[in-house]
Model the fold of this input.
Amino acid sequence: MAKKNHIPKASEVFRNSEHFFSNLSSKVTFSEAFPEINDIKVEVIETSEPKTNEMLKEEKYQKNKVIYEKLIGEFIDCSNKFCYNGGFSIGEIIREMVSIKQTLIEGHLKCQGYEGSAKGKRRYRSCVHCFYFHVEIKYK
Ligand SMILES: [Zn+2]
Done:
């Protein structure tokens, strides 16, 4: 049987190598993009539909929590295998925090992708995955 077409995620649409951030027109490493950051911790829980904070405390969601430290790229990808360009820009969140020297943020975003044909040419429906994030930054 032929292998199914791979559907690229947000990070792949954005770039081919890992751990690179966008800095306007160029792509740079995390520490080049954010020289003022000493330490960062990003926790993300991805769900297949919107959940309340109360629901997210349940073990089944907590065990899906992914913790990223410095090795993080511009995008965190969506795990929905039918989703094209799926994920969200953690880079945008970090840039906003840095601009006001914010140390902690919690929030959620819907996946930016959509379910469609393999190359993203046809769009069937928006992806319903959600990302609940918690970001802590320690500045230099
Ligand atoms: Zn998605």
About this structure: The chain has one domain: 10-139. Residues 10-139 form one domain. The CA atoms of residues 41 and 114 lie 28 Å apart. Residues 90-99 form the longest helix (10 residues).
